[in-house]
Design a protein that fits this description.
Strands 3-4-2-5-6-1-7 form a 7-stranded parallel β-sheet, with helices on both faces. The protein has a 6-stranded parallel β-sheet with strand order 8-13-12-9-11-10, with helices on both faces. The protein has a two-stranded antiparallel ribbon with strand order 14-17. The protein has 35 helices and 17 strands. The radius of gyration is 32 Å and the shape is globular. By secondary structure, it is an alpha/beta fold.
């Protein structure tokens, strides 16, 4: 019996050793001599050496093994399945999430052969005759790679066809789409394994640029390749510079300035909404930047043309939703800007990874406001609770990243399970402008004691509430208000404790179980620290509250001399036209002119309260006066006014203008638009103040006594030196309704100012 037991133990150890050996980097001669592999690499792609782990990945696939590849953007993932496909018998089925991505990769692979049939794609964009051509090439053996969307793979016709061909292997590109914990989750990806079983078994290679341990396990489980050999490359992209800037009301101008400082460089600007994509692309073009929009709402032909123009360098900048860039093989993207902060750090990492794929300069700048996170949380409302929990955890990680003052490279790599040993990477905003360290040994010990006392069953918000002494329902129900540490940190701001806990995680004292919805636990290192404390230092978070940029030197101070000159000019023009001075330009508009120095009509339209109509009607003399004043006094004008904005007319305002032109009743207009009458007046005032004419005489004639209306009109024309409503209401007295005064003021300004 003892001998049998020894045999079982020995056999088990032997199996384990074999399994571990299988997961280790393979010899380059497993299935093909190294020289032969290099020869094929040179023949098809023109390279004489492999990059990183490519050689081991390829040989593992050639040996018929399931393979999992985690390789950062620019690491050469595509070649890991393209070269084996070209070498092996049969056709490789490549599952790809985007039509644009398929087209790009098929175009690229066709360049390595004289035969265009070497690569094809099957998707909804093809005509019946084109589909027949693809099938003929596959059946004849000419096609080595067939790109298919998961949705297309589910069609019975497609499955029936693929059952009758030799499949060399299946490649699942952008495999993070499989996992609900990954960004860009696609439910269709969950059905890949059952469909593969229907078509016919062959090795599977799954590839992605971003995946945490949780996502990695989820991908392999869903694909049924739990024993696949893993090839995980470093996530560190040393050539990329990371920066997070506060998002202010001038974010559009900030982006224009950044791009103008990098003339002719290729770049991508990501926005969450299609509307913002369109608006920002228009603003960039108005500032002579060769830019175009890209989003899923565009026609397929237009999207494809935009993508091709960007790749072929006929276009410098793409403004896009996250749909753009996945798998795009453009090595010289020099900057990636995030107008909106992404929903997850995986999404952020992948999108920034599209910069500097050639190893050259890559600048990654994200604009952030706490309001962005509120907006993203609202997007999740109405979704299943489990999906919201996952989304909130991913958002919490994003929030911790953007607000932290710790090295951004260290934060990103830690998120993906990789340790970055350097304290300063010299390639991020936090490292170039470091915060001072604060001694917090007692504080981190209190946090560790709380996490240990609540047995690692609660999230970071719960721990912070205990430290702050907040008696939430959850805290009271678990009697955590009775802990000795309850309210021990009430004298500090909550952000202090969030930053401290995050850096406790980075130091290895606390573990955050992402797959368990972010529960905090004390690690072995944390328990050792509690037993024998050493000095602990951390950095407080960056502030992202209501931020106002510092004024440019010498340009943001009101020029009193110029303001007086502008007022004199306004008064003279008003006398000639026999209208009140404020009808020409309001005081706040003159003050902005005396601060920003607009010298062209385009620049003048960037001044508050000055629309195109007013600029054209009154602006020439004012611009000439400002220009002469600047020249006479050698004044350096700010850059802000050189950034052209684009006139914005919302759909609501356009609808109001159209309905007024049709002489519809104003109450009916408000009802039809689903707004209150006072809101309608707000919109109409904004329209006429911007310089657009709005003739509401037809309405006033129906609802208002003529003498009553003329009294108000004459007040604005002859008596008042200001258009302020409060002054008008006080002067005219209680016999005149405030809404009536507003209506007549709209008529007055429309007729005389516009």
């Amino acid at each position: 019996m003892a001998e049998f037991f020894f045999f079982i133990v020995f056999f088990g150890c032997f199996v384990d050793i074999c399994y571990l050996c299988r997961r280790a980097p393979l010899s380059a001669t497993t299935t093909m001599e190294k020289n032969d592999l290099i020869s094929n690499l040179k023949r098809y792609f023109g390279f004489t050496a492999f990059k990183g782990q490519q050689e081991y990945v390829i040989n593992n696939l050639l040996a018929g093994n399931d393979t999992f590849v985690l390789m950062p953007t620019g690491g050469g993932k595509s070649l890991c399945y393209q070269l084996p496909a070209l070498i092996m018998d049969g056709t490789a089925i490549v599952l790809s999430p985007l039509i644009a991505l398929m087209k790009n990769q098929v175009d690229a692979i066709r360049q390595v052969s004289e035969n265009d049939g070497i690569a094809h794609y099957l998707n909804s964009s093809l005509t019946r005759s084109q589909v027949d051509e693809v099938k003929n090439d596959i059946q004849s053996g000419r096609t080595k790679l067939l790109y298919v969307a998961p949705e297309s793979l589910t069609k019975e016709e497609t499955k029936e066809f693929l059952r009758n061909i030799k499949v060399s292997f299946y490649a699942v590109d952008e495999a993070h789409c499989i996992s609900e914990w990954g960004h860009d989750f696609r439910p269709e990806y969950r059905r890949i394994r059952p469909i593969v079983n229907e078509i016919g078994r062959a090795p599977i290679i799954a590839l992605t640029a971003t995946a945490t341990d949780k996502v990695r396990r989820d991908i392999k489980k869903s694909l049924g390749i739990l024993k696949a050999v893993d090839f995980v490359s470093s996530f560190n992209r040393p050539n990329l510079y990371y920066e997070v800037r506060p998002k202010t009301k001038d974010v559009d101008k900030d982006i224009v300035r950044f791009i103008l400082q990098h003339p002719g460089k290729s770049g991508i600007v990501y926005c969450l909404s299609r509307k913002k994509v369109e608006q920002l692309a228009e603003i960039l073009r108005a500032n002579n930047i060769n830019a175009r929009a890209y989003h899923a709402g565009m026609e397929t032909a237009e999207r494809n043309q935009t993508q091709d123009d960007f790749i072929m360098e006929r276009l410098d900048v793409i403004v896009a939703t996250i749909a753009f860039g996945m798998g795009i093989d453009k090595p010289d993207v020099r900057f990636v800007i995030h107008y909106d902060i992404p929903k997850s750090l995986e999404g952020y990492y992948q999108e920034t990874g599209r910069a500097g794929r050639d190893g050259g300069e890559g600048k990654c700048v994200a604009f952030y406001s706490p309001k962005d996170l509120i907006k993203l949380k609202k997007f999740m409302e109405g979704k299943p609770v489990s999906e919201q929990d996952i989304g909130n955890q991913l958002l919490a990680e994003t929030k911790a990243y953007v607000e932290s003052s710790v090295c951004r490279r260290r934060l990103l790599l830690h998120y993906f399970g990789e340790h970055y040993g350097e304290e300063n990477c010299h390639r991020c905003d936090n490292c170039l402008h470091p915060h001072e360290y604060i001694e917090a040994t007692k504080e981190i010990l209190k946090v560790l004691k709380v996490i240990q006392a609540i047995k690692g069953k609660f999230k970071i918000d719960h721990v912070v509430n205990i430290m702050m002494g907040v008696e939430t329902e959850e805290i009271i129900s678990h009697c955590h208000e009775q802990l000795p540490e309850f309210a021990a940190g009430a004298s500090k701001e909550p952000q202090y404790w969030y930053a401290l806990i995050k850096q406790g995680i980075l130091s290895g004292y606390i573990e955050k179980e992402v797959e368990n919805y972010g529960l905090l636990k004390v690690t072995k290192a944390g328990k050792k620290f509690m037993a024998a404390p050493e000095p602990f230092y951390f950095k407080e978070n960056n502030e992202f509250g209501d931020y106002e940029p510092e004024p440019e030197e010498g340009t943001a101070v009101l020029d009193d001399t110029l303001l007086k000159m502008l007022r004199d000019l306004r008064r003279k023009r008003a006398q000639v036209l026999n209208i009140p001075p404020y009808v020409i330009f309001q005081d706040n508009s003159l003050e902005a002119m005396a601060t920003m120095y607009p010298v062209t009509l385009d620049e003048l339209q960037n001044i508050p309260g000055v629309g195109q109509g007013k600029a054209q009607r009154y602006g020439k003399e004012f611009c000439e006066l400002i220009k002469k004043h600047c020249e006479d006094n050698e004044i350096e004008r700010p850059l802000d006014l050189r950034v052209r904005t684009v006139a914005s007319k919302s759909k609501l305002k356009v609808s109001i203008i159209q309905k007024v032109d049709r002489k519809l009743d104003l109450e009916d207009i408000a009802d039809g638009l689903g707004i209150e009458f006072e809101e309608l007046l707000d919109e109409m005032e904004a329209i006429v103040y911007s310089g657009t004419k709005l003739d509401i005489s037809y309405y006033l004639e129906d609802v208002m006594d003529e003498d009553y209306m003329l009294d108000i009109y004459d007040y604005f024309h002859d008596e008042s030196e200001t258009d302020r409503l409060s002054v008008a209401v006080k002067t005219l007295g209680p016999d005149y309704d405030e809404s009536d005064i507003r209506l007549v003021r709209i008529k007055f300004l429309s007729e005389l100012a516009n």
